Amino acid sequence: KNTENLGVIWYDAHGDLNTAETSPSGNIHGMSLAVSLGLGHPALTNIGGYSPKVKPENIVIIGARSLDQGEKELIREKGIKVYTMHEIDRMGMTKVMEESIAYLKERTDLVHLSLDLDGLDPDDAPGVGTPVMGGISYRESHLAMEMLAEANIITSAEFVEINPILDEHNKTAEVAVALMGSLLGEKLLYGAEEHITPDLLAQVK
Questions:
Q1: pLDDT tens digit string along 138-170?
Q2: In a domain, 110, yes or no
Q3: Which strands sit side by side in the sheet containing 81-84, from one edge to the other?
Q4: What are the phi and psi torsion angles at 116 (to 5°)?
Q5: What is the CATH number of the domain that holds 168?
Q6: Looking at the whole model, is its pTM more than 0.85?
Q7: With contact defined as beta carbons under 8 Å apart, do 154 and 111 qualify?
Q8: Longest dimension (CA), the chain
């Protein structure tokens, strides 16, 4: 399939939509989605030999609650679809995921999930570098992953920002593995073996 029509679900407390000009901290890890849109230093935007990697209308950000001013302006300017914690609280995760899935199914061929563990509340995922209070719950995240598994739209995924030094008894790493299981089709009642080959399961573990 053509990667020109790649969709992205950005499950994160942050937009990671800063450039060198807008970033208050100068942290490059707060620029990754902007870079994928072709915005920023050429040394970053041209990683992989082509730019941009994704179109703004093919992105859905879920769980945002810490956006810098420049990021807010870019979201408005580019028309990026965002479900902040406000929307998740008002609409519920089921509705947010239903809308996100329908939106991406309509306009994309492949969908990449980028899940930053700080998208979850720090109570559930403490082992992250930039925790933000008031995040998505562990249960809501399982529901989101199960809905993505049922929709069968995810073609690649990354689970990022686990810092073992900041973690509490490996809690965040275990959360990440459990969410990966749900994304790959593991259910509470019926086991993952119905959906997942043993070698794929071994990769998760």
A1: 999 999 999 999 999 999 999 999 999 999 999
A2: yes
A3: 81-84, 59-64, 6-11, 110-116, 154-160
A4: -90, 125
A5: 3.40.800.10
A6: yes
A7: yes
A8: 50
